[in-house]
Amino acid sequence: MAILSQRFAPEQCQAVAREVLAARRGQPGALLPILHDIQDRLGAVPPDLLPMIAEELCLSRAEVHGVVSFYHDFRASPPGRHVLKLCQAEACQSMGVKALTAEMEQKLGLPLGETLEDGSLSFEAVYCLGNCACAPNAMLNGELHGRVDAQELLALLAEQESRA
């Protein structure tokens, strides 16, 4: 599998987590803001930090893991330079996104849910981009695209890469 390695050393990740935890100490309902702050600073919420977060908030590791795994925007490793999200919800399924996903996996050489080893691209599933009338939908680097096909997505990726 082509998974991007962690960008930060464990010591750096722990230092960031300690800073975030200290800044949010005593805040009611701090778990989600803490997770967001850590991900904003590191690009991910490394699994090694979950025990530290749980201990600081007097939660079980299972509770913290449950929140991280429930919300699809939290990641265990940093994303690539470009992030292509392909909607897998019902409206997009009815318009052929399963076949499009398979075609993109083949053309990119990258399974859905993974990041290229060189860190250039993350290919992710998302479950509704709120543009159902224009299915299938994709989001590339935060920009929504409707009625997409493989050729259009590849052209968009090439355009983004040429800007970088």
UniProtKB/TrEMBL annotation:
<keyword id="KW-0479">Metal-binding</keyword>
<keyword id="KW-0411">Iron-sulfur</keyword>
<dbReference type="InterPro" id="IPR002023">
    <property type="entry name" value="NuoE-like"/>
</dbReference>
<dbReference type="InterPro" id="IPR041921">
    <property type="entry name" value="NuoE_N"/>
</dbReference>
<feature type="binding site">
    <location>
        <position position="92"/>
    </location>
    <ligand>
        <name>[2Fe-2S] cluster</name>
    </ligand>
</feature>
<dbReference type="InterPro" id="IPR036249">
    <property type="entry name" value="Thioredoxin-like_sf"/>
</dbReference>
<dbReference type="GO" id="GO:0046872">
    <property type="term" value="F:metal ion binding"/>
</dbReference>
<feature type="binding site">
    <location>
        <position position="87"/>
    </location>
    <ligand>
        <name>[2Fe-2S] cluster</name>
    </ligand>
</feature>
<feature type="binding site">
    <location>
        <position position="132"/>
    </location>
    <ligand>
        <name>[2Fe-2S] cluster</name>
    </ligand>
</feature>
<dbReference type="GO" id="GO:0016491">
    <property type="term" value="F:oxidoreductase activity"/>
</dbReference>
<protein>
    <recommendedName>
        <fullName>NADH-quinone oxidoreductase subunit E</fullName>
    </recommendedName>
</protein>
<dbReference type="InterPro" id="IPR028431">
    <property type="entry name" value="NADP_DH_HndA-like"/>
</dbReference>
<keyword id="KW-0001">2Fe-2S</keyword>
<dbReference type="Pfam" id="PF01257">
    <property type="entry name" value="2Fe-2S_thioredx"/>
</dbReference>
<dbReference type="GO" id="GO:0051537">
    <property type="term" value="F:2 iron, 2 sulfur cluster binding"/>
</dbReference>
<feature type="binding site">
    <location>
        <position position="128"/>
    </location>
    <ligand>
        <name>[2Fe-2S] cluster</name>
    </ligand>
</feature>
<comment type="similarity">
    <text>Belongs to the complex I 24 kDa subunit family.</text>
</comment>
<keyword id="KW-0408">Iron</keyword>
